Amino acid sequence: QKEVEQNSGPLSVPEGAIASLNCTYSDRGSQSFFWYRQYSGKSPELIMSIYSNGDKEDGRFTAQLNKASQYVSLLIRDSQPSDSATYLCAAPDRGGYNKLIFGAGTRLAVHP
Amino acid sequence: EPEVTQTPSHQVTQMGQEVILRCVPISNHLYFYWYRQILGQKVEFLVSFYNNEISEKSEIFDDQFSVERPDGSNFTLKIRSTKLEDSAMYFCASATEGAISNQPQHFGDGTRLSIL
Predict the structure, then answer these.
(1) Looking at beta carbons, which pairs linking B101-105 to residues 24 or more positions away fall under 8 Å?
(2) Would you state the pLDDT for residue B1?
(3) Contact B100 A94 (CB under 8 A)
(4) Does A1 touch chain B (CB under 8 A)?
(5) Adjacent-strand bridge partners of B44
């Protein structure tokens, strides 16, 4: 069974700090990864995708992928209280018809 | 920006009743999915649909579940005889291509299904 693992948190950071969210995955052949943000009671909202080793930046968000270590992370710079949410890491199941396998999510709390 | 829309936002149903959850995927998307999330748990895959047929289903998606794309825009999930454990948020998602090609899936706002 392919797995995506995340620390459930909560991760508490002060406003303006960098929040670092981590994810590991079991399928060494996984090629793409997605970070979704989920506010309480709401749906997953895509914020980043990454396919290549290294860093990918989009505004205050940076995704990092290390395929050798089977590790993907999300950095949020200048964290704002509005960033407080659960962040879901997801990878497509290569053996299946493209279903996403989600981690349990890391709850981020940004305090003023 | 185009979005996936789901109706109703909240459905309350008596156990044993049939329920239909509706979704309108993004118009140029070809791959459609249903996921569910029981309160406090992971988002779980239910079924994927492509070219007017189911391409994959999970073990959750038993004979009580069915999906249909009755016209060019709607994508429905039917639960024939609901059980208490079907209470969850149900999310519809769509993608231009399958996830293997790296195209992300976009999610609707979800339907909260409450079985009494």
Answers:
(1) B102/A31, B102/A32, B102/A49, B102/A51, B104/A34, B104/A46, B104/A49, B105/A34, B105/A46, B105/A100, B105/B31, B105/B33
(2) 75
(3) yes
(4) no
(5) B36
Stretch B30-54: mean pLDDT? 94
The two three-digit tokens of residue A105, written as one number: 């999510």
Of A34, A45, A92, the CB nearest to B100: A92
Amino acid identity for residue A65 in this structure: L
Q: What does residue A53 show for φ and ψ, rounded to 5 degrees?
A: -55, 145
Interacting residues of A15 by C-beta distance below 8 A, sequence separation 6+: A79, A80, A81, A110, A111, A112
Dist. CA B7–CA A96, nearest whole Å: 28
Cross-strand partners of A8: none
**How many angstroms separate the CA atoms of B110 and B88, rounded?**
10
- DSSP letter for each residue of B84-100: GGG-EEEEEEEESS-GG
| Average of per-residue pLDDT across B24-30 | 92
Are A88 and A5 in contact, with CB atoms under 8 Å apart? no
Distance CA A99, CA B9 (A): 23
Contacts 24+ apart (CB under 8 A), A48-55: A48/A74, A49/B102, A49/B104, A51/B102
Q: Which residues in chain A (13-32) have CB-CB distances under 8 A to chain B?
A: 31-32
